[in-house]
Each structure stands twice: as structure tokens, then as C-alpha cells.
Amino acid sequence: MNTPHRPSGASGARALVLSACLSSYLLAACVSAKPAPDPNADARVVAGYYRVNEGDTLAGIASAFGRDTASLKRWNGLEQPDKLAPGKVLRVAPPPDDGKPPQIPPQRAAANSAACGPGKLAWPVSGAVQRAFGGRNAPDIRIDGTPGDIVKASKNGRVVYTGNRIKGYGLVIIVRHDEHLLTAYGFTQRVLAKEGDNVKRGQTIAEMGKAPLLFEVRKDGKPVDPAPYLKGCES
């Protein structure tokens, strides 16, 4: 009889630390045994759609794609949104006739040494902001782009985490810039830096997935609005 493999040594300790919580990096963002809806999970579904998995909720899917539940209900004609059948394909992008004005990319000043000083962060991607910062209920911003677009580090720092074990972030890379500030880049399709790497502002660290990029800034462990840090600074 084969004996089940058990992690040992450093690898076992690392698994226990991750399963307990990554509080050192994202405080309340803990590891979950069941991952949140991953916008990159099923390549067979065309862009703008998502295939429901066992245990998915409409609120969770809406959050993963930066949408609101009311829009998903309307786009999909859902009368009982609390009963999502696994395998059902949902529209998660606005239909052409949704009636909302097109999003206009924010105006950004050209980068210069003063604008991108020590206290500033460079834009990780060049798309329009799809969802603004909203405090506790929206602790990040979502930035549009195309799958495969490069994601750049916003500031010099050290990669402290890469992976998909933090609920609600998909495949994420986290960079610590100093003892107070870190940035997180979520819902990527490929990470191009590894834990422990030192990265420079503007260095390519990941590729965008099918969903808008989740960009989060934390200061002393608490999410803060990225807008003041990004204003006037390009990567």
C-alpha cells in the first residue's frame, strides 16, 4: 500500500503559513480552500463571458469582473440569481446596446522626474479605470486592458508573494516597496517575476488576463486610494 505523501520540512511549514493567512502582506486577505471565481479559469469561454463553477455566487462573480450584481442580472435575465447552475455561461461584459456611455481613459500628464518622485506610483497598465476605489467595499481599482498586455511594477521593490491562493485576487503578484507601502496586481494570466526578486519601477512583472487588472495599494496594512499616488505619473 502506498503511503500518502506528506509535506515535510520547509515546504510543509510554508504550506501551513499560507493556509493560516497571508496577514503580513494583505492582512484580511486570507487563504481560502475554495478559490474565488477566476476570470481566466476556462479558456473555452469567449471573452466577455464566464462559465459558472460549483459554489460560485453572483456577488462573487460580479466582484471578480469588477461589475455589480444588478448589471449581471439584467444582462443575463436572471430571475433567481441565488440559484446558479454549474456550467451555465454568464455574460460578464456589457452588451453593445447596454446604453451606457463609453468609458474614457483618464487624462494623464506626461511623466517627469518631479511627477514621478519617491512618493509616486507608475501606472501598471495603460488602460482606462473601469472601477474606482471605494473603501472597504472596493479596496482596489480595476483597469481595462487586453489579455497578454504587460503589467509593470509601479515602484522599486521586492516581490513578496506570487500565486492564486488569496481569495478574490486570482493569480496575483505582490510587491513590497518599503516598510509602509505595498502594491498588488491581481487577475493576471502569467507572473513573470518570482518571490524574492527585486524589481524596478516600469519593469514587466506579469501579463494581464481576461478580466480588468486588479490594482491595490496598501499603506501600513490598510487599503488606500491609488489615485493620488498615480496622478501625473506614467510607467
UniProtKB/TrEMBL annotation:
UniProt-listed CDD domains: LysM, M23_peptidase
Keyword Signal: yes
Keyword Transmembrane helix recorded: no
GO molecular function: metalloendopeptidase activity
Gene3D superfamilies: Glucose Permease (Domain IIA), LysM domain
Signal sequence annotation: 1-28
Spans annotated as Disordered: 80-111
InterPro entries for this protein: Cell_wall_metabolism_enzyme, Dup_hybrid_motif, LysM, LysM_dom_sf, M23ase_b-sheet_dom
Boundaries of every LysM domain copy: 48-92
Pfam families linked to this entry: LysM, Peptidase_M23
Superkingdom in the source lineage: Bacteria
Keywords: Signal
Name under which the protein is recorded: Peptidase M23B
Organism of this sequence: Caballeronia temeraria
